[in-house]
Amino acid sequence: MTKKNTDKEYLAPWEKAFDRILTPFDEFIHRQTTSGILLFICAIVAIYLANSQWSEIYQNFLNSKFTIGIPGFELSKTIHHWINDGLMALFFFVVGLELKREILVGELADPRQALLPIVAAIGGMVVPVAIYLSINPAGHNSDGWGIPMATDIAFALGTLALLGARIPKNLLMFLVALAIVDDLGAVLVIAVFYTENLNMLALLVAAIMIALLVTLNLGGIRSAGPYMFLGVILWIAMLKSGVHATLAGIFLAFTIPMKPKYDPARFLQQFSKLASMIQTAYRSETNIIKNDALRAHFQSLGEGIQLVQAPAQILEHKFHIPTAYFILPIFSLANAGIVIDASSLTSLVTNPISLGVAAGLIFGKLIGIAGFSWVVVKLGLASLPKGLNFNHIIGVAFMGGIGFTMSIFVAELAFANNAQDLLMAKTGILFASLLAGLLGFMWLFLSTKKT
Fold it and tell me: What is the pTM of this model?
């Protein structure tokens, strides 16, 4: 006679079946490579749609208007603008949370440790801009100078991760730190240089919202609700101000508290007391539905678990998956659809915009990241992370040329009123990103050994 298990697990009729379906998928989507793979797939789908019999339907859908609000106070934008101005604000919110974490407690917290990726990122921004402007020194073509500055962290990490055991963990950390500084540079460029005519009243409202958000932070408010409510108003004000609305996500992220209510030591003391109280309550009644004391103790435990984590940390965790696996793929679908024909492929090497973008991403990133890293190490101002050599840095420098998301985003701002120039810029971005990824992969594959 087998002993009956007293630790009951209550399962819905289909729960085990769903566990078998969802668990492998959950494990899969938590890999960094998944985001890059999804972006790549969506880019291929977008290019197919733009060059198929569905092209007109695809374009008409993106250009169709969607309105929210009430008469007298409403926002009416095309689907394309809602994606680029609305959904991408959430992407920038996650970027802001990552930036704040890295600056406070991550790879960028230690000045000496942070110097190498910061200098490498600066080189990876300055040299591509210089190359682009050398090809497009004047006129409206020069508006695209910010396009080759950016590195797509999802694509770059995804490509790097494909090398598996050949890549030291420190190289992944170096690339993450570099890409985050790169994102910060792109954000500053968008804020300062890619703005429309300014609406001073809307800017005043935005400034008031930021002041209120800072007040919530200093006042110890840790609930996400008030921050999100003010964040929506901030986004609307930024949308009306002429400064790009997605920057509201950055400002909001930097006001979210990074310190938890309880330190771990205090939580452990409270947890010990609650565990004893839970055991006492459980002995009196094992059914939690009937036992209000047991339910209250578990609720207190849940609240404590929330308070021992930093609000910014919780929000970054919650928004990471919807951003990486929903927002960015949708952005790719909406923006990567370029029309490919013989003339556009010929123009890739003759049009100054596509040539400047491609040269900036492929050669500019390589020279800037690897060159600036070499100089700062040779001067003794920084040292290579343990286990890395300059072959690793050169490989990452190639992969820094994978621009995609941020590059396309800046291109949309730079050439919003010129469809042909935008097409050339996107063609250059896609070609350069593909070639840079392949060169980086092959360089690291041939110059490293599997461990």
Answer: 0.73
